[in-house]
Structure formats: C-alpha cells, structure tokens
Amino acid sequence: TTRLILDCDTGTDDAVAIMAAAGHPELDLVAVTTVNGNVPLENTTDNTLRVLDHVGADVPVYPGAARPLIRPDFPIPREVLNADSPEFQVLQLDLPEATSTAQQTGAVQFLIDTYLGDEGADIVLVATGPLTNLALALGAEPRLAARIPRLVIMGGGHRMGNVTPTAEFNFWVDPEAAEAVLTAGIRDVTIVPLDATHAAELTLADCDRFDAIGTPAALASSAFVRHRIDTALRGDAEAAASTAVHDAVCVAYLVDPEVVTRSGVHPVNVETTGTRTLGEMIVDTRQWTTEPTTARVAFDADAARFADVLADAFRG
Ligand code: BDR
Ligand code: CA
C-alpha cells in the first residue's frame, strides 16, 4: 500500500483524484490539504469535504493558503482564464452538503508536523493545485525538503499551456511557489504536466464504464467527467468528445507507473518574471546541460491504463 497526502484545489478533476485515492485498494489516503486555486479556498475546502463524505471516507481535511505567495488574491480576473477549463465554473460541486468539518490545524502546519515527524517518512505528497502550501511550509521549515520522501505534482506544460499559450494553471496561479518547490532540493519529484494529462483523456465510453460500476465514487466521477466533456465541447460536434482529468493521472501513476509511458529527468524551473511567459515551466532537455536535474517530467501517458486504475479504485 502507498500512503499519500493530497494537496489540492478541489474542482472536478481534483475530486476524481480524491475519490481514486480514497477508494483504490493499494492506496491509503492519510489526509487532504486544500489551497486556493480553481475556486477560492473556502470552496476548495467545502468541495473536498463534500467529496469525502459522498464516498464515506473518513479522511482529515486541513485548510491551507487562501492566496498565492505574492500574486493578487483570488478571484483572478476571469477574462484571463481559459474558457475551456470547466473547473472555473464549479464553485460548488454538485454533491450533498458536507456533514464533516475541516481540521483546526492549517495545512502548512500539518505538512510541517507530518514530515518532520517519523510518520512522514513513507507518505507520498501529491500536489494537484497551486503549490502555495508546500512553498510556505518549506519557507518556514527548510529541513522539510530532505524529509519529504516523494512528491508528485500536476502542473506545467512542456509543449503546451492552458491559461496562456505557455503557462499551465497551477504553476501560473503561483509561479513563485512552484519555482520555490522545484528548487528546494526535494529528492524524488515527478511532474505530470499537460502533455501527459492530455495524452490520457477520458471519453464518454469511460463514463459508461464507470456508471456500470455504480458505486458513489464511480457515479460522481462519471458525472464530473461528463460535465468536463460537455464544457469542452461547447456545442461543437466536431470537437473530440474527451477530456483531460489532469489531477487523477497523478494518483493513477502512483498505483501503476506505466500510466506514464515516456518521461525524463531534467532540470526544471518556472518562469516568474516573463512578460508573456509568466508561470511557464522550463524543462531543460539539452543533452549537454550542466544544470542539476531536479525532477522527472512525464511527457506521455496511456489513457487505457489510466481508466483501468480509476475503475479499480471506484470498485473499491
Ligand atoms: C490544473 O488546473 C486546475 O484547473 C486543474 O484542477 C488541474 O489541477 C490543470 O491545469
Ligand atoms: Ca487541481
């Protein structure tokens, strides 16, 4: 069993990631920490509680940062956001109100306590929102970098962006946090960028398969994926009826490393000063680079294997 903490900004694809992590027999979801991102912190926390209640998972939720390190507060001007990102409309997930409540301890303190303590030694951190919480924790306690055994991040795009032509949403919302995390010296970092998540898009046939499984996790995930496909289509029958479920790819990769089919270890940085390229992930793929390598970057993924892991998780 792989123990993990999910650090997320629940939205629909984070929700599928949470349900996969809570349900898969080979995973043990220790806690969820929340951050401002797809929607304001209050809503990412509330959405997280709704999702966990919906699947009957008794997992503590620690609310984290309400705003990026130095960038303006949410709401980010909607006009700069890519209209193809359905999460931005999901202020409140279409699930019953939560009965459970968030922890009093904040996410940053929880991450520090967990990873400085002994129990953190075998807990993978999976970050699927802006990296503000982890950056704050590392800033307050630099020893943390050597204590986190493994970090898997959904963020960045090697050859694509989604908020701007070059920047992916999570890195773009808090580029200083992303750069701080990637240069902190954490020993085992994997980045699952847009290039991989879009290679593993789910289709309506996958939704039908989840519906047939019929558990609360399967049905809610199917509904969220259908919603994402509908939003991506926007009445355009010519468009492919599939959607990336970015964050869930990180969770599936933990269970089945072959969900990622091509990757490389490279120096990776995030642009924090560019006028057109703010938040861009820079992967140094030069063979002769003398920069130290800092992360494994996933370049391609297998949609069928991804869907298989989700199906296994939803069966529970
Ligand atoms: C990422 O941005 C968010 O909108 C999604 O939840 C995902 O984490 C994709 O760019
Ligand atoms: Ca997310």
TrEMBL record:
Domain Inosine/uridine-preferring nucleoside hydrolase, chain residue ranges per copy: 4-307
GO molecular function, one term: uridine nucleosidase activity
Database matches in PROSITE patterns: IUNH (PS01247)
GO terms classed as biological process: purine nucleoside catabolic process
Membrane-traversing stretches: none
Keywords: Glycosidase, Hydrolase
Record-level GO cellular component terms: cytosol
Domain of life per record: Bacteria
UniProt name for this protein: Purine nucleosidase
